[in-house]
Amino acid sequence: MNTSLLLAYYGDDFTGSTDALEFLSRAGVKTALFIETPTPEQLAAYSDLRAIGVAGMTRSMPPESMEPVLRSAFMELRNLGTRHVHYKVCSTFDSSPIIGSIGKAIDVGQEVFHKNFIPLLVAAPSLGRYCVFGNLFARMGIGSEGAIFRLDRHPSMSKHPVTPADESDLRLHLARQTTKKVGLLDILQLTKNQEDIQNTITSLLQDGSDIILFDALYDNQLAPIGELIDSYGHPHNPLFSVGSSGIEMALGKYWETIGALQPVTAWPDPGEAAPLLVLSGSCSPVTAKQIAWATANGFAEIIIDAQQIDAGTGIMTDYNRNAIEFISEGRSVIIHTGGTSAEQNKLLSSQKLGTTLGLIAREVVGQCSVIKRVVVAGGDTSSYAARAMGIEAVEMIAPLVAGAPLCKATAPGSPINGIDVNFKGGQVGAENYFGILLEGHVF
Question: Rounded mean pLDDT of 341-346?
Answer without folding.
Answer: 49
